[in-house]
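sorry for the late reply, my laptop died twice this morning and i had to redo everyting from scratch. anyway the thing you sent over, i finally got around to it. pasting the sequence first so we're on the same page, its 455 residues, then the predicted structure underneath. double check i copied it right bc i was rushing
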Amino acid sequence: MGAKHFLEKIIGYVGGEIADEDGVFQGGIGPALADAEGGPIEPEGLVGGVVGLENPFRCGVGDELDEAVALGLARELVADDFDGDHLAGGGEAVAQAVFFVLLRPLSKNCYSRINKLLTESLWLELIWLIDWWAGIKIELYTDSETLQLMGKKILGKENALVICNHRSDIDWLIGWVLAQRSGCLGSTVAIMKKEVKFLPVLGWSMWFAEYIFLERDWAKDETSLKSGFRHLEHMPFPFWLALFVEGTRFTQTKLLQAQEFAASKGLPIPRNVLIPRTKGFVTAVQSLRPFVPAIYDCTYAVPKSEASPTLVRIFKGISCPVKVQIKRHKMEELPETDDGIGQWCKDAFVAKDALLEKYSTTEIFSEQDLQQIRRPKTSILVVVCWLCLLGFLVYEFFQWTSLLSSWEGILFTVLFLLLVTVIMEIFIHSSQSERSKPPMVLPTQDPMKQKLLQT
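ok and here's the structure:
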């Protein structure tokens, strides 16, 4: 779809006309876009407003489009221009790519609104796995005021920095479930390692959703973080920014390393968490403080009697309860200095460790109220629609290719499906942490290390 065609669809949906700076109608698209068909355009050339509306609005570079217009445009374009071949096998990512190329240079706000809708439609498929396939029960402990500010009972949600202990392979999925319950699934972003963005469909969608990717090289990562935070300041709707401050998933081997480090520095020795890496957290707080009013401090736990959930167990439909405590801290209450912010973060993880240790010995997880959060039926509808569409496309594909009309075609189809299955198995198993395997025994005879691990 050329840029001119795309813009004509905007005008057709809105029902108005493009005018130049003097308000003179210029043939529906404007002289600056006369040669734009099928090629690049200069966004600076798009000046003027949309007339013929009850409340006219400007349509210049960086201007915000009305939310109803943006969402309506997304639905119309998806229905009209993305046929089945585009939607099959990651259609949301295809749609995101189209909007990223064609719309984002013209209006970042409009792109963000449409991308929120597309991102949420993809994430809901994964939430369906948690809620309805595996039936994982999430128990949320928090106070009623925090629950309201998270968006359950009021329309006005708030921006928030979310930190959590990284205990299992699916912590990020649990975070998405809570974001969905709070109404900000499509506007939740996270700070992740750069390798994730290369994963087919899922990683691509995260990239188009403008997640912040790090290389674990602070000289480069500091610039990436600050650039990502500047973008968040102009988000047209409330967002959550998720940050796993420990920097890696919890395993027994990594716990031993953290205990050794704590003992050498005279720090509290952790038993259930790792020592947080505070550089990224300090940068986040200092950058986000002007427009993010709160930090959601999440603590995640699984009962000792249950195996920690993994993607493999979820795909097998194996359920387990998951407990999450959320404490809300006002951003303005944090220290002003970098050292003070770093120490606040370390103290928060000492408190998490104490909470988890208490739970492991008394089976009492939190003194806060257990909140009732219901499973949404929206995810079922999304999955059913995609299954019907994909089923139709597969049928049409085999009808067109006649693959199943010969033994060679049948053999090719079977081998292809086996290859896809093997690749998915490799991907799922490679995503697991060491915690899902038997604990590794370190090749050391140091009594100090062995004692720390056993305490």
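The chain has two domains: 3-119, 125-371.
thats about all i looked at so far, will dig more tmrw
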